[in-house]
């Protein structure tokens, strides 16, 4: 056996409790894409995306048309996904974490992994964390309920990339990415195994680790939770030999294809081990596409704007639930959110919910009975939420009211000027009101002549006030600032930093 494979197996086999077997509990795989737009998948209407495995999940599972993240950028949306709480409660604002950030997801927040651990689950995250490192790497996933972590601590553009290879044989990454910080590191648990990451081989390592985690857990008859947080399709796009040049969409399409191939590999691992009928799989994305990258930045379909904005394109995401024999194939137009995954998963396995204010709802009625959603309202926070301004927009059933609108650099270059950075913060009194069923593109604001106008705005305002009374902003973790000494370095005594932080472990 190759030394790497042995290392990876030992990394999690040694941590699995030997007396916690409960094979009656379902396995759980949570697939999280990065900067993927509502219109990027074949099953959501893109004419040239090559996503056969995700399309198959959708064909045999439940596809959502009205599913939301809680933020148009990634650190806060990832916090909400894992905790079932708006990012404002946990302090994951404004913006995102950086390599030297002092803060992170507070350890007193309860993640999905921590909900499952008391029931004997073994837990792993593969891919992108982006919820902080902090002093002594305090905030890494292994301190947040995850037994195993193979991946990167933040976005893969948060480090120099101009001389790195993104596609084989030696196609350099597009752009320069962030300068003046360390190269992107690859972690195994809390140890750096490679710096900088070699992108063409990265997903092969991820897939090997993830599939071995699945097979080993099943052989031990231990239920597992796998959180596969892909880097794809965030800028700069990358892919290995099996996907490069194989799509019709260029670099973005190749990156998306490689993610789709990962989905196929994970589903095959379930089938080979006879676990496909006892595994709940859920797929979605962290936020909308980075339209400023043009053809390299994804597509929000018919939705307005993209990443960085509180328009639909920034926070409405593709989502698919799959469980053969349990979830009937179809499409649901019911409201759902990443906030709802923690209470839903807890309900599936009869786990105890955290004793905190949760913002999610159990979605089992939608998933297994195709009934109405318990969620009627979705609140839209900007990238820099504040108690002074409150939420920027509110969706109530099919209607959406914008109290504030603003463009973003992430959504520059589109023909719609409202998406651009120079579309400055604008307060709307009365709010702009849209019917998202007849106008999902948010083109035609309803006026006082609409028969529902007055009653809907009154109810939205009441829901907004009720929600904001319960919202207690946690201390801003990102506002704690940065310290260059906290940047992860595989050779911490080297000079001059950050450029000297480069090494390749013999295993990789």
From TrEMBL:
EC number annotated for this UniProt entry: 3.1.6.8
Signal peptide as annotated in the record: 1-22
PROSITE patterns assigned to the protein according to its UniProt record, in alphabetical order: SULFATASE_1, SULFATASE_2
Coiled-coil stretches: none
Listed SUPFAM superfamilies: Alkaline phosphatase-like
Catalytic activity: an N-acyl-1-beta-D-(3-O-sulfo)-galactosyl-sphing-4-enine + H2O = a beta-D-galactosyl-(1<->1')-N-acylsphing-4-enine + sulfate + H(+)
Location relative to the cell: Endoplasmic reticulum; Lysosome
GO molecular function: arylsulfatase activity; cerebroside-sulfatase activity; metal ion binding
Domain of life: Eukaryota
Keyword set, alphabetical order: Calcium, Disulfide bond, Endoplasmic reticulum, Glycoprotein, Hydrolase, Lipid metabolism, Lysosome, Metal-binding, Signal
Cofactor(s) essential for the protein: Ca(2+)
Keyword Metal-binding listed: yes
GO BP of this protein: lipid metabolic process
A single GO cellular-component term on record: endoplasmic reticulum
Domain Sulfatase N-terminal per the UniProt entry, residue ranges: 26-349
Alphabetized Gene3D superfamilies for the sequence: 3.30.1120.10, Alkaline Phosphatase, subunit A (3.40.720.10)
The keyword Lipid metabolism belongs to this UniProt entry's keyword annotation: yes
InterPro entries for the chain: Alkaline_phosphatase_core_sf, Sulfatase, Sulfatase_CS, Sulfatase_N
Protein family: Belongs to the sulfatase family.
Functional summary from the UniProt entry: Hydrolyzes cerebroside sulfate.
Assembly with partners or alone: Homodimer at neutral pH and homooctamer at acidic pH. Exists both as a single chain of 58 kDa (component A) or as a chain of 50 kDa (component B) linked by disulfide bond(s) to a 7 kDa chain (component C). Interacts with SUMF1.
Name of the protein in question: Arylsulfatase A
Lineage, broadest ranks: Eukaryota, Metazoa, Chordata, Craniata, Vertebrata
């Amino acid at each position: 056996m190759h030394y790497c494979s042995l290392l990876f197996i030992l990394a999690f086999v040694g941590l699995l409790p030997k007396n916690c077997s409960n094979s009656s509990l379902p396995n759980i795989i949570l697939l999280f894409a990065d900067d993927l737009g509502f219109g990027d998948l074949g099953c959501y209407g893109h004419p040239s995306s090559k996503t056969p495995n995700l399309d198959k999940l959708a064909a045999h599972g439940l596809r959502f048309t009205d599913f939301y993240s809680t933020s148009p950028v990634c650190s806060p949306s990832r916090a909400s996904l894992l905790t079932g709480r708006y990012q404002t409660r946990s302090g994951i604002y404004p913006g995102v974490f950086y390599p030297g950030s002092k803060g992170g997801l507070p350890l007193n927040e309860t993640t999905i992994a921590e909900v499952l651990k008391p029931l004997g689950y073994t837990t792993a995250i593969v891919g992108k964390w982006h919820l902080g490192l902090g002093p002594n790497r305090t905030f890494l996933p292994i301190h947040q309920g995850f037994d195993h972590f193979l991946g990167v601590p933040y976005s893969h553009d948060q480090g120099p990339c101009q001389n790195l290879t993104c596609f084989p044989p030696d196609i350099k990454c597009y752009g320069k990415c962030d300068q003046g910080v360390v190269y992107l590191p690859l972690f195994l648990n809390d140890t750096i195994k490679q710096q900088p990451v070699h992108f063409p081989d990265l997903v092969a390592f991820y897939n090997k680790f993830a599939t071995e985690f699945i097979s080993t857990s099943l052989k031990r008859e231990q239920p597992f939770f796998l959180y596969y947080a892909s880097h794809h399709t965030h800028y700069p796009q990358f892919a290995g030999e099996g996907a490069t040049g194989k799509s019709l969409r260029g670099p973005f399409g190749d990156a998306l294809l490689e993610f789709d191939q990962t989905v196929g590999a994970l589903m095959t691992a379930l089938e080979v081990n006879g676990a496909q009928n006892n595994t709940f799989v859920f797929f979605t994305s962290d936020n909308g596409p980075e339209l400023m990258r043009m053809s390299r930045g994804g597509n929000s379909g018919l939705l307005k704007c993209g990443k960085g904005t509180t328009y639909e394109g920034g926070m409405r995401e593709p989502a698919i639930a799959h469980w053969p024999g349990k979830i009937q194939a179809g499409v649901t137009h019911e409201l759902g959110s990443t906030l709802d995954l923690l209470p839903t998963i807890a309900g599936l396995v009869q786990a105890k919910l955290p004793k905190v204010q949760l913002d999610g709802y159990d979605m089992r009625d939608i998933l297994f009975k195709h009934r109405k959603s318990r969620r009627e309202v979705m609140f839209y926070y900007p990238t820099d939420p504040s108690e002074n301004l409150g939420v920027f927009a509110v969706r109530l059933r099919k209607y959406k009211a914008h109290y504030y609108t603003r463009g973003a650099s992430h959504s520059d270059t589109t023909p719609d000027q409202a998406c651009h950075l120079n579309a400055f913060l604008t307060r709307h009194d009365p709010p702009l009101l849209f019917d998202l069923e007849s106008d999902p593109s948010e083109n035609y604001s309803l006026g006082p002549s609409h028969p529902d106008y007055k009653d809907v705005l009154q109810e939205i305002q009441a829901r907004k006030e009720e929600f904001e009374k319960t919202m207690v902003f946690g201390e801003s973790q990102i506002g704690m600032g940065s310290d260059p000494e906290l940047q992860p370095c595989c050779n911490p005594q080297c000079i001059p930093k950050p450029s000297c932080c480069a090494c390749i472990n013999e295993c990789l």
